[in-house]
Amino acid sequence: MDNLVTQPRPDIDDRFDTPRITAAVDELAARHAGREDVFRAAMAQLLKAEMIEARAVAQAVLLKDRHGRRCAERLCFVQDEIIRILYSAATRHLYRSPVPSGAERMAVVATGGYGRGLMAPESDIDLLFILPYKQTAWGEQVAEAILYCLWDMGLKVGHATRSVDESIRQARGDMTIRTAILETRFLTGDQPLYDELVERFDKEVVQGTAAEFVTAKLAEREERHRRAGQSRYLVEPNVKDGKGGLRDLHTLFWIAKYVYRVRETDELLEHGVFDAQEYRTFRRCADFLWSVRCNIHFFSGRAEERLSFDMQREIAIRLGYTSHPGMQDVERFMKHYFLVAKDVGDLTAILCAKLEDQQAKPAPVLSRMMARLRPSNNRRRVPDSDDFIIDHNRINLAAPDIFKHDPVNLIRIFRLAQKHNLAFHPDAMRTVTRSLKLINTQLRENPEANRLFMEILTSNDAEIVLRRMNETGVLGHFIRAFGKIVSMMQFNMYHHYTVDEHLLRCVGYLQDIERGGNDEFTVASDLMRKIQPEHRAVIYITTLLHDIAKGRPEDHSIAGAKVARRLCPRLGFSAADTELIAWLIEQHLTMSTVAQSRDLSDRKTIENFAAVVQSVEQMKLLTILTTADIRGVGPGVWNGWKAQLLRTLYYETEPVLTGGFSEVNRAQRIAVAQSEFRAAFTEWPEAELNAYVGRHYPAYWLKVELARKIRHARFLKASEQAGHKLAINVGFDEARGVTELTIFAGDHPWLLSIIAGACASAGANIVDAQIYTTTDGRALDTIAISREYDRDEDEGRRATRIGEMIEDVLEGKLRLPEVVARRAAGRKARPFVVEPEVTINNQWSDRYTVIEVSGLDRPGLLYQLTTAISKLNLNIASAHVATFGERARDVFYVTDLLGAQINAPTRQAAIKSALIHLLANEESVAQPAA
User: Fold this and answer.
1) Cα–Cα distance measured from residue 926 to residue 918, given in angstroms and rounded to the nearest whole number
2) Which end of the chain offers a freer environment for a tag, N or C, measured as fewer CB atoms within 10 Å?
3) How many Cβ atoms from other residues are within 10 Å of residue 595's Cβ?
């Protein structure tokens, strides 16, 4: 054939032995001459076996050298050779054209990700068959022969067949096709045909359209991040599409290819887009992300792109990470991952800056919310400083040596940008990053630098500016303890972000609290206005530092207090304020723990908490810190119920601390809560409303939020009018991703256990429970279970099944132990390890013994615990159920059968031993209880 190129290869290549395999295909063609179908099937079988073997070798090499890019190149080479062999077989054995016409020409081209010359093990293959003009019978047959064989090999293939004219026309109108052609790579067939496509694409599509392409690609990137989760610090990142992932690197290269017309990444150096160090970073990031992605594909056996908890440890081991004191192997691996994601973000900013300078996209401002019209085409001096200029609404350096001349400028640049609402010029940020060695002990101790830092922390847009300080490395160098937690993840399901990202978000939420007007934070916002003015800086620095000692062998609250004692004097805090900050950090989990896992109507709970917080001012600060901390953990963690518990704990404790005087005393607060309810709920006559109000104990009025109280009232009336002995109401809380079951039934000593067992039998995992009893002996329990289905109707049906099961158990029609055991038998192990803990004490209550249980959460755990406690001849007076990711923390207030506390050490030891055994042995759920 004219101009046919088959890309000769060296005789021997250890990645794929093409000559031997081609000879084997030729031998199959001769053996099955005249039997086309048999030949195709035999060829597909042969090539599939060779491909499986080549992939196994690739995986073995990857595990040995841990070089992901090399692995991706190797897999791509194998795929290239298979397609070349198939094209050769199709044109020589199946559809040979002795005298080919001008139309019987074809170029087989790799496009998309495959066109880049890199392939993950389970990636799709994208092929473009280029024809001179319209489709011919010969072209159709050859393309089909290649495609059917690839499909028979079990490969996922995306394909298109187009003439050069058609390709150009479609590329003009469709950005996806334009990007695919941008990444084409010739494989086999007619080279001049491919060259014509490339030449015409450059002249007829690319020229003069760079700004349009850049804008489209950056918009695409924003949308992809929105879908994958905006933060690059999500703890289960998407390696391909997430922020800081491979697709961001691809977008960089697409833009560079389009704007600068480069074919290889190293050409970015020649065009001055990146300097040598930045280019090395680009290669290093790509190598690391390819290692991760190839290992995920090999390990999962599918095109999985999300680095989920259940595979993070395996990938960490494959990449050679080991555990260090205070940090597991998986946490060290994920820290490295997030540092790479941060570098990818920096590279994106550098390229965008280059393009902005060429007017390819509009200039930004620091905070879109604060954007306002101002002249943008001039360069002028920044007010308050001769060292900085405003360049297109961005702060830039007046001279390249301003940081050497005065290292305080490394902090000052951020304060000035914040003060004048300026974005950061990427050239300035590059220089900042290259000047980090100037941040030494002298600068850290400099009073002016520390004053500027505290101004940044306590002024508007602190979260945005601190994040830029963190991304450039300034924050971690200026506060070295912060540098240690940058990109650190905690291997658990509770925290959605890395430690540094969590702290920065908490500062942002603290500013929300201070601004007020957000119903989520009513109590905290009110308290923020009432704290002593000098404590405003105290709460800000505490919020930034409260988790700063994560990842150390010592308890992070105690270690964090030590960090604060060393750091805060330098930041300008007095000895008394430094001690207050250290105390807040040391106690930052206390209020959340007490609110969620103690009986707030028990006088002893309140007295004990009051003894810890010592003063109303300290409790105000702790309440504000706790609110910001819980809200900053991740979406759906903070909710109205937790807000109500914190409010109750605060106002119950206040009179103890003030010697009886309370801004809002208990009786008054109950009356206010009841009045609020009466004012909001006007559907019933007064007599009926009074009777209903009298059905609930004081604790109910203090601990339940108003909207839920109104739902309860309607639900109870409807249930009683329908004559139901047991009624269930189903609600959905989308923010938390849970389904809520509100159960109204006759009180029964085993009711909680039965509800827990019914949930376990339906495979529903209880994440929290609110348990109340009415004055007329009815139970009103709200159980939150993890969602299993996307659609509310499906969730509703599951909830109905649970309700029917509870009814059947109460009526003796069903025995729970067997049902729970059957359900548990097929469950797979979780990737987390939580050391089981059981604490038994009589100090938290005068009337009850408090059993606190902490361990790895699993479906059926609450059922097992309540059943075991009942079998130990204990009565459960109240239960406080909470889940923190994979960790369950359940607290039970119990007595013996005579209503007394458990005082005997031997009895306490027996209870502890039984519960520890239950927590440690997952299999115990599968054993039917007697």
Assistant:
1) 11
2) C
3) 26
Amino acid (one-letter) located at 538: V
Distance CA(353)–CA(433), nearest Å, equals 15
Q: What does the pLDDT look like over 321-333, one tens digit per residue? A: 998 887 788 888 9
Residue 76, judged by CB atoms within 10 A of its CB (0-12, 13-18, 19+), counts as buried
The strand pair at 157-163 and 125-131 is best described as: parallel
pLDDT at 202 over 80: yes
**What tens digit of pLDDT does each residue of 175-191 get?**
888 888 888 999 999 99
Report which of 516, 881, 519, 880 is spatially closest to residue 707, judged by C-alpha positions. Answer: 519
**Token pair 């506060």: residue:** 479
- Nearest CA to 673 among 658, 654, 652? 652
Q: Residue 884 gets which letter from DSSP?
A: E
Residue written as token pair 């790579």: 185
Residues 463-496 have pLDDT tens digits of 999 999 998 999 999 999 999 999 887 665 556 7
pLDDT at 662 over 80: no
> Which of 487, 452, 178 lies closest to 339, judged by CA?
487
What local confidence, expressed as pLDDT, does residue 367 receive? Answer: 45
Residue 294 tokens read as 């190839």
Quickly tell me which residue has 């089909």 as its tokens: 144
Secondary structure of residue 628 in the 3-state scheme? helix
Between β-strands 125-131 and 388-391, what pairing exists: parallel, antiparallel or unpaired? unpaired
Residue type, 423: A
Cross-strand partners of 389: 381, 396
**At residue 27, what is the residue type?**
E
How is residue 628 written in tokens?
């910001």
772, amino acid identity: Y
CB count in 10 Å sphere of residue 325: 8
757 C-beta neighbours (distance < 10 Å), count: 29
Is residue 751 a contact partner of residue 781, using CB atoms and an 8 Å limit?
Answer: yes
User: For residue 234, what is the DSSP state?
Assistant: B
| H or E segment to which residue 773 belongs | strand 766-773
> How many Å apart are CA 691 and CA 833, to the nearest integer?
50
Alpha carbon separation from 284 to 69, 278, 430, 617 (Å, rounded): 10, 10, 18, 50
Q: Which amino acid is at 915?
A: L
Q: What is the pLDDT of residue 656?
A: 84
> Helix 666-680 crosses helix 706-721 at what angle (to 10 degrees)?
60
Judge contact between 780 and 715, C-beta under 8 A. no
Residue 363 CB: number of other CB atoms within 10 A? 14
pLDDT of residue 790: 74
**pLDDT for the residue numbered 821:** 60
Q: Return mean pLDDT, the chain.
A: 85
